[in-house]
Amino acid sequence: MASSSSGRGASEGRRDVNRITEALARAMSIGASSADDCIDQGLSFFEGEMFDEAIEMFDRALKQDPNYNDACINKVVALSELGRHAEAIKLFDRVLKLALDRSDACSNKGESLVSLDLHVE
Description:
The chain is an all-alpha fold.
């Protein structure tokens, strides 16, 4: 029994490593010369659960275009994945100023507020 479950665990672990390796390869194959390229590379890192690297790429995109809402939104999600909810909330406000019709940003902000036990009545 133990060898059977450990076999499944090893197989799942290999799939995770393969998924991360593929995401890293995609990220590294994208030249980060434009804000869009930075977003694409950041999304590849995100898919590989390399959230710090993804945030770095989203920051690069924001340096090139400070009003790039997709870069802000993607950074917010990556920060939330890392449990950095206080930082995410600050950036949510920026996202909401750039595009008031972003219901997904409002929802994500609410989730982060709940995670920080900052319920708004």
